[in-house]
Write a structure and sequence with these properties.
Blueprint lengths: L2 H23 L4 E2 L11 H5 L4 E9 L5 E8 L4 H13 L2 E2 L1 E3 L2 E3 L1 E9 L12
Antiparallel strand pairs: 1-4, 2-3, 2-7, 5-6
Length: 125
């Protein structure tokens, strides 16, 4: 293998590694767990024995603030779904990174509602 070919091959490999490193730094926005905010769980939903998981898409801007939310998966209970929306809109987020820069993007967020241990669950309808 010639020295010229080897140098070109090394340069190409270096460019691949650098571009791969930049892409590896890309990340979606996520909930900032250093600034916890309680999950809103309506007392009426707890009394009714409502449990479930809500999955929401949250548009997070560069400041880490949520500006828009849409339902990806309902819990099956309107009051839990609305409480989950209220909850995620009060959270703070770590913004997305794209190409090494902070960017607006959508986060997929799951809010789980589970009755406290020992709580009575309402009979199924």
């Amino acid at each position: 293998m010639s020295i010229r070919f080897s140098a070109a091959l090394l340069a190409l490999a270096g460019m691949f590694l650098i571009s791969h490193a930049v892409l590896a730094d890309d990340r979606a926005p996520k909930v900032d767990t250093t600034k916890p905010t309680a999950v809103v769980y309506p007392a009426s939903a707890q009394r009714a024995g409502e449990e479930g998981t809500v999955i929401l898409k949250v548009h997070v801007v560069e400041s880490g603030n949520p500006v828009q939310v849409s339902m990806a998966k309902s819990s099956g209970f309107v009051d839990l779904d609305n409480a989950a929306i209220e909850t995620v809109m009060n959270w703070h987020y770590v913004p997305a990174i794209r190409g090494g820069a902070i960017a607006d993007d959508w986060a997929l967020v799951q809010v789980v509602y589970k009755l406290p241990e020992g709580a009575q669950q309402a009979p199924a309808k």
